[in-house]
Amino acid sequence: MKWFSADYHFGHKNILKFCSRPFNNVTEMSTALIRNHNEIVNYDDDVYILGDLCLGDYKEAIRYLSEMSGHKYVIPGSHDYRWLKRANYIWQVTGTRVLPPLVTLKLEGQLMVLCHYAMRVWDKSHYNSWNLFGHSHGRLRTVGKQYDVGVDSNNYRPVSLEELRVIMESKPDNVNHVGR
C-alpha cells in the first residue's frame, strides 16, 4: 500500500499548543503518533512523509524513523533543516530516502505533486493531477484536487492512496482544468 503524511513534529513542544494537539507532552505525542502510524502501515508499504518530521538533530530523526513501519520517503519541510544535513547517513542507517522538496510522481495510474507546501497550480493540474501537502495543519482552504495529508487533518495518522481516491472524487476539478 501507499501512504502519505506530514507534520509529525516529533520533539516539538510548541506544536502541542499551536495545533491544540490532545497530548500532555511531546513524549506522549510521539508515542501516540508512532503507534497510530504502525497500526496501519505495514513493513512493506511505502510512506511519503511531506515534511516536518522532527525538529531535532539526525540522532532524533534516526530514532523516530527507525520506530516507524514502512519504506519511508521524506520530502523536506520547514522544520527538517537540522537533521537533513546528515540525510545520507540517515539513509544508510534507516533506509529512509530523502527526496527533493518538490516531487511529481505517478502511483497506480494517478499523477500527483508532493510538496510540504500547498500550491495554487502544479504540474499537470490542468489535467486534474493532485497536490498533496502539509505545513498548514488543516487551516488552509484547498482548491480543486488538493489535500492536506498532515497528521492534524487525519486523526494523527497517515492517509492511504485508496482513501485519497475517495476524497478526491468528491472534490471539484482544479481551477485550471481543461477537461478531456
Blueprint (SSEs and pairs):
Blueprint: E1 2-5, H1 14-18, H2 26-40, E2 46-49, H3 58-67, E3 71-74, H4 81-84, H5 87-94, E4 97-98, E5 102-107, E6 110-115, E7 130-133, E8 146-148, E9 159-160, H6 161-169
Parallel strand pairs: 1-2, 2-3, 3-4, 6-7, 7-8
Antiparallel strand pairs: 1-9, 5-6
**Unreliable stretches, pLDDT < 50, 5 or more residues?**
none
Determine the CATH superfamily: Metallo-dependent phosphatases
> Proportion of β residues?
15-25%
Rounded to an integer in angstroms, the radius of gyration calculated over CA atoms is 16 Å
Distance between the termini: 29 Å
Q: Looking at CATH, which topology would you report?
A: Purple Acid Phosphatase, chain A, domain 2
What is the average of the pLDDT values?
95
Key attributes of the depicted protein:
180 residues, alpha/beta, Purple Acid Phosphatase, chain A, domain 2, five-stranded mixed β-sheet, four-stranded mixed β-sheet, 28% helix
What can you see in these coordinates?
- There is one protein chain.
- The chain has 180 residues and is an alpha/beta fold.
- It has a single domain, classed as Metallo-dependent phosphatases (Purple Acid Phosphatase, chain A, domain 2, 4-Layer Sandwich), CATH 3.60.21.10.
- It has helices spanning 14-18, 26-40, 58-67, 81-84, 87-94, 161-169; strands at residues 2-5, 46-49, 71-74, 97-98, 102-107, 110-115, 130-133, 146-148, 159-160.
- The protein has a five-stranded mixed β-sheet with strand order 4-3-2-1-9.
- Helix 3 links the parallel strand 2 (46-49) and strand 3 (71-74).
- Helix 3 runs parallel beside helix 5.
- The model has no long low-confidence stretch (mean pLDDT 95).
